[in-house]
Amino acid sequence: MPIRVAVVTGSNKGIGLATVRALCKQFEGDVYLTARNVGRGEAAVKALNSEGLKPLFHQLDIDDLNSIKTAAEFFKQKYGGVDVLINNAAIAFKVADTTPFGIQAEVTLKTNFFSTRNMWTVFNEIIKPGGRVVNVSSMNCVSGLKKCNLDLQQRFRNENITEEELVELMQRFVDEAKKGEHKERGWPDGAYTVSKIGLTVLSVIHARRLSKERPNDGILLNACCPGWVRTDMAGPTAPKSPDEGAVTPVYLALLPSGAKEPHGMYLSDKEVQPW
């Protein structure tokens, strides 16, 4: 039997690291901690080693298409593909950050939406039958969607929205943010929020495509909210620990063989949420 493999992006700290920790305990196969910075990634592996866990490491910077392709080729050659992919890597500017909002929008959407999309474009070809794909979204996407104008809400909720239409909307937000026009054009005032709306809708689109193009492969793809978690991103006052934040991503990663659902859904606390 080939060795099964799970890959978690952006996993040298926070929810990603907690997800690797849980998978090392629960997943039958090799678990890869990935990070763009080799030193930080290897230090995180050593920290888990001290807990008696044995994750492996591979460098992966999702903002670098060549890095994505190199990683995918490695997993294809060594394992014949990937069984579990958790797209966790993301960034967020602090509320007090004085970087111009247009730049915040461009930088945030590049990583959280466009680069995560690149991950799927490259990795979807090597997801094995029975694979599980988890896109770590945010509670902000639901509240943020309600702050969009009605036209945007309808477009994001349209079951037939295409990937091209979604990409166009995300780029439109960046362009309008750079001009300082995003609020008057009906967008919420938060780049992180918009990026996670985009990621959640992208998950629906990719799940729909999987059902059409690989109907017999039993691959399940979902988005989830880990909750408000104590991380560098969310701050020290959040109610959940990183290990608690990892519960839903890990639940989706370990959906049993033969399961038909959830697929193309958005979950929080292991429950499908209305979108």
Automatic annotation (TrEMBL):
Q: What is this enzyme's class at the first EC digit?
A: oxidoreductase
Q: Which UniProt keywords apply?
A: NADP, Oxidoreductase
UniProt cross-references to CDD domains, sorted A to Z: carb_red_PTCR-like_SDR_c (cd05324)
Q: GO molecular-function annotation terms? A: carbonyl reductase (NADPH) activity
What EC number(s) would the UniProt record show?
1.1.1.184
Taxonomic superkingdom: Eukaryota
Pfam families membership = adh_short
Query: Which PANTHER family does this entry report, sorted A to Z?
Result: CARBONYL REDUCTASE (NADPH), CARBONYL REDUCTASE 1-RELATED
Into which family does the record put it? Answer: Belongs to the short-chain dehydrogenases/reductases (SDR) family.
The protein here is known as carbonyl reductase (NADPH)
Q: Which species expresses this protein natively?
A: Maylandia zebra
